[in-house]
Every structure is written in structure tokens, then in C-alpha cells.
Amino acid sequence: MVTMRGRHWARRLLAQLHAEEFSKPPRCGACNGQKADPRRKANGSWYWHCYSTVCPQHGKGRYRGWTHDVVLRRSPY
Length: 77
Fold this sequence. Notes:
Blueprint: H1 7-16, H2 19-22, E1 36-40, E2 46-50, E3 67-69
Antiparallel strand pairs: 1-2, 2-3
């Protein structure tokens, strides 16, 4: 464990973890709900998944419901 002080360190860490992209989940394209969570594929890429049981896409397809790829911007650091 490392303890660091300073805004620069915090901004850099949050940029490396893509915190901005993961803090704004999209609305489900099938039910327009807000129950989307990030999941990871076997190849390491991320996608949003709707976990609402009232979603018309719930339980269908390979990833079991509506999915949308997470677009990660390149870190400035």
C-alpha cells in the first residue's frame, strides 16, 4: 500500500483507471432503463450490460441481455 498526497497524483490515477468513462453508464438501448453495469469480456475489453429483469432483452443472446461496448479514451499520462 502506498499513501500519496496531491491533486496531480489523484488525477493521474483516475485517468489510468478510466474513471470518467465508467462513472457515466448509458441508458439501456432496449428498455431505456438505468440499470447498466460494466463487465469484462475474455479478451479484456469492457462492455455495459443491462441487468434489469423487465428489459425485453433480458436473458437473450451470448451476454444475456442488452450490451454496449465501453469506449475507453487514451490516457493523457
